[in-house]
């Protein structure tokens, strides 16, 4: 049996095939153009970023960042999901210590990522060199940026991230955690605040910045020096064995500083059992040996002498508290730059440190310490560690409450 197909039927078939081919070519063209828009590249084949070399400014030239589902697994309730993008070392302290959360590192992933849920709010934290504008989820609605503003170069990079915000088309609310200047020279960020016409609803800034007002600018703890290899914890603290040193000071002694007064006062006590190791020049990085010696000094000392550096608040106070060595400080150290006298945050939270009027009173303090029993020292160590854990919990809860108030207009569910 022969099947005959008329000329008109063949014409219809060829016409349908032509339409399908045309639609396929058009869709390929649109996808190609979309890739150009997202990546800011002239060729779609170059859309995959070189995470080791990609510079933020090359991506920030893109006019609009469009939503993309690539590499993004949203939580069950997307409306209560907050992204945290960390571009500063204090991000590790934020996530590991304040949020008491951990990160997962997967081979081939551009970042370390972790999630933590509080009540009905899910926080997703991303940290690492792969956190660049063209790899982070562009469909973010609620965002926390952790930035470094300590130097002019760090501020330049921080500005690039803040300038990205208007290009995130679905973004509704933003907060910034800023490692600010030790002199509190942070006025450059004001135009980015919503109160000044910007997109940042809340700013959490390290050090005693005079602009902290409890409304949209809040103080944030400096934390431990993760960038210098200080261990993240959890820590094993011995409460039974007496510590061999009454105090320690391992640090740089700057000329004409209060540290010279401290050193002179300590050396005036001939029978002191303090561990002392000084240097004349500060170095940003530590060797494995020097870092290990520092941690051992904290673990083996009842007290840690913590004189002001450029700023009264320093890593040493948090590191000593974490390891059960009571920080000793001078109350109301003279402010530097624009800063208020500090460390205000630690005192407002009732830090059980030992406070001196002046380092010249150190010999008297050491004499009182010598009269304490081992049981009294152990009890004090327990109180310090309990306070520090409670301090981190309160800082976290205050942060979450601000986020709920600013991002979700104060709906129920305080942490």
UniProtKB/TrEMBL annotation:
Residues 82-221 form the RXYLT1 N-terminal domain. One of its GO terms (cellular component) is Golgi apparatus. GO terms for biological process: protein O-linked glycosylation via mannose. The keyword Iron does not apply. The keyword Ligase does not apply. Keywords: Transferase. GO terms for molecular function: ribitol beta-1,4-xylosyltransferase activity. Pfam families: RXYLT1_C (PF24785), RXYLT1_N (PF24786). Transmembrane segments: none annotated. Residues 227-408 form the RXYLT1 C-terminal domain. InterPro entries: RXYLT1-like, RXYLT1_C, RXYLT1_N. This is Ribitol-5-phosphate xylosyltransferase 1. The gene is rxylt1_0.
């Amino acid at each position: 049996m022969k099947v005959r197909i008329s000329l008109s039927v063949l014409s219809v078939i060829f016409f349908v095939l032509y339409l399908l081919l045309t639609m396929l070519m058009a869709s390929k063209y649109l996808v190609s153009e979309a890739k150009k828009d997202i990546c800011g590249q002239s060729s779609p084949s170059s859309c995959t970023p070189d995470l080791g070399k990609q510079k933020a400014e090359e991506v920030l030239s893109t006019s609009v960042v469009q939503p993309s589902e690539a590499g993004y697994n949203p939580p069950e309730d997307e409306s209560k999901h907050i992204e945290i993008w960390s571009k500063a070392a204090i991000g590790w302290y934020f996530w590991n210590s304040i949020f008491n959360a951990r990160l997962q590192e997967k081979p081939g992933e551009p970042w370390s990522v972790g999630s933590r849920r509080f009540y009905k709010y899910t926080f997703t934290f991303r940290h690492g060199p792969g956190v660049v504008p063209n790899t982070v989820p562009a469909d973010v609605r609620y965002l926390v940026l952790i930035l470094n503003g300590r130097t002019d170069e760090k501020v330049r990079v921080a500005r690039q991230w803040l300038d990205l915000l208007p290009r995130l088309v679905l973004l509704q609310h933003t907060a910034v955690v800023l490692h600010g200047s030790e002199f509190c020279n942070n006025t450059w960020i004001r135009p980015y605040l919503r109160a000044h016409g910007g997109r940042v609803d809340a700013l959490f800034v390290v050090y005693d910045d005079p602009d902290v007002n409890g409304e949209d600018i809040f103080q944030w703890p400096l934390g431990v020096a993760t960038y210098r290899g200080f261990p993240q914890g959890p820590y094993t603290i011995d409460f039974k064995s007496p510590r061999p040193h009454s105090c320690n000071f391992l640090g740089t002694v700057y000329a004409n500083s209060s540290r010279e007064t401290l050193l002179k006062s300590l050396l005036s006590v001939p029978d002191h059992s303090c561990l002392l190791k000084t240097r004349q020049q500060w170095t940003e990085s530590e060797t494995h040996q020097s870092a290990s010696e520092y941690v051992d000094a904290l673990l083996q000392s009842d007290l840690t002498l913590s004189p002001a550096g450029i700023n009264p608040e320093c890593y040493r106070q948090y590191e000593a508290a974490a390891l059960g060595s009571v920080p000793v400080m001078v109350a109301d150290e003279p402010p530097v730059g624009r800063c208020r006298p500090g460390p205000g945050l630690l005192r407002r939270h009732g830090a059980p440190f030992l406070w001196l009027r002046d380092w010249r009173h150190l010999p008297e303090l050491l004499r009182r310490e010598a009269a304490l029993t081992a049981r009294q020292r152990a009890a004090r160590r327990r109180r310090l560690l309990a306070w520090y854990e409670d301090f981190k919990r309160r800082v976290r809860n205050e942060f979450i409450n601000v986020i709920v108030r600013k991002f979700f207009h104060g709906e129920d569910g305080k942490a």
